[in-house]
Amino acid sequence: METLTGKVALVTGGSRGIGAATARALAEEGADVAMSYVNSGAKARAIVCELEGKGVRTAAFRADQADPSQVEGLIRAVVERFGHLDILVNNAGIAVSGLIDNPENIIDDFKRQHAINFGGVVAAIRAAVKVMENGGRIITVGSVIGTRVGTVGMADYAATKAAIVGYTKGAARDLGPRNITVNVLQAGAIDTDMNPATSDFAPTATAGVALGRYGRPEEIAAGIIFLASPAASYITGTVLNVDGGYGA
């Protein structure tokens, strides 16, 4: 049974990895799907063609999540194309690592990480709630590193992921009267282009995971679909960990 027929969803960073898996899962549930991308235009167009084959409306838009004006333009473009917006999935993000006392750190990279991982989420939520009707859903893909770092060099990344949890809880309070739910899904180590299970870092990433393996993008998408579905209508301001037991 398709649970999201008639809904319009936007997935930021939807051209690959968790974003692409989420776009596919939303389409399987009957939602029309918009996605954003920055550099992966060819991959985004391929996903659009794939989703059109599932019988839903879909489109890809180029937008840099580090630029609030582009994020606002993205939301406007989605509404102009599809007529409304019901589900916002804040998935776009980057990971920049480095010991805080390393003099070779490129500070501009850390600033861009903050602008995308936190600033882009805030900008998207602020723009979306201007057009989202009562009963909408906002889901942000976070990281368990925002709660338990577990390794060196991740302080700045962890800070961006912890910040969206606090913002989500506040937004859930603000938007509760409109029956708009706002939640975070904190992902564990997931096998994507950014963090492949074949990398040298993989043994470290899975050492503290109870299930002893990387997760699949589809396993994150399943959690997002749940939070977007009618079954999650009484869940807001919460954090769902999909991490294989990393935080256990």
Automatic annotation (TrEMBL):
Keywords carried by this UniProt record: Oxidoreductase
Span of domain Ketoreductase: 7-193
UniProt keyword Oxidoreductase, yes or no: yes
InterPro entries, per the entry: KR_dom, NAD(P)-bd_dom_sf, Sc_DH/Rdtase_CS, SDR_fam
GO molecular function, one term: oxidoreductase activity, acting on the CH-OH group of donors, NAD or NADP as acceptor
Superkingdom of this protein's organism: Bacteria
Keyword Secreted: no
Family matches, as SMART domains: PKS_KR (SM00822)
Family: Belongs to the short-chain dehydrogenases/reductases (SDR) family.
Descriptive protein name: Oxidoreductase
Organism of this sequence: Reticulibacter mediterranei
Lineage: Bacteria, Bacillati, Chloroflexota, Ktedonobacteria, Ktedonobacterales
